Amino acid sequence: MTALKKQRIDLRLSEDDKSLIEEAAAMTNQSISQFMVSTASERAAEVIDRHRRMILNEASWNTVMEAISNPPAPNDRLKRAAKRLQDYGVIRERCEDRDFFRRR
C-alpha cells in the first residue's frame, strides 16, 4: 500500500518548460505530476549521493588507508585540546597505549 500523499510543491515555469515536461510525461505514460515527482526524486537522490561520497584515486586511497592504519602521534596542540575536554568533563580517562583520551 502506498503512503498517503499530503505534501504539495507549487512552482512557476515557462511555457516552453511546461510543454517539454508534458511531452516527456506523455512519452513515459505518466501524468505530469508522476513524471515530475519521479524525475525530481531521482535527481535529488543522485545529488545527495554525490555529496555524501568521496571518490578517490588509488594514490589518495592509499594515503587515507595509511593514515588510518598508522595514525601520527598527537601533537602538543591536540594534547592541550584533549586536556581541556578532560577538564570540562567531556572525556574522562586516558588511554595509555595511544596517549589519547577515551570517550565516556
Automatic annotation (TrEMBL):
Signal peptide from the UniProt entry: none
Positions of transmembrane segments: none
Family annotation (Gene3D superfamilies): Single helix bin (1.20.5.780)
SUPFAM superfamilies membership: Ribbon-helix-helix
InterPro entries noted in UniProt: Ribbon_hlx_hlx, TacA_1-like
Pfam families in UniProt: TacA1
GO biological process, one term: regulation of DNA-templated transcription
Keywords assigned: Toxin-antitoxin system
Protein family per UniProt: Belongs to the TacA antitoxin family.
Protein name from the UniProt record: Toxin-antitoxin system protein
Natural source organism: Enterobacter cancerogenus
